[in-house]
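From the shared-data thread, chain only:
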Amino acid sequence: MKAIYVLLCFSIITASCGNNNADQPGADADSIPAENTYSWEAALNDSSGRLEMRKVETTGLDSLTVPLVINFINTGNPNIKLELVKTSGDTLYLKIADATFLTQRMGSTGPTMYLATAVYNLTEIPGIRFVNFDFEEGDHAQPDTFSRENFKDE
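Structure, as tokens:
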């Protein structure tokens, strides 16, 4: 009889512990699903050869602050390191201390794609409309202030 009592208690405890839906993600009716995070990516259209900007679902970018977006861009392009100089009005000022990879090693299309991607992602930040890049000019890229309009007809 004692063995049946122990077995019955064990069964009740096991059944009650294994059926707790509150421990499972998404089971709480009050929980708010996480929003999808998107970033911009430059790509060349195969048929037209023109630059196209596309929004892609992204991991690693959970909010739109200047440091987080710069870090996101730097992570995707380890050979080019963007550094924040300042923000003034609607313009973000950035510096690339060593721009050799950008200006000499990416060909002629690579820098345009990089700058377009950086500008589109940085201008997603509320209040930022222009991005000023300061770096040593090279064969394939030169410093300037850019907006999304600069990449519309590339």
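Confidence is low (pLDDT under 50) at residues 1-34.
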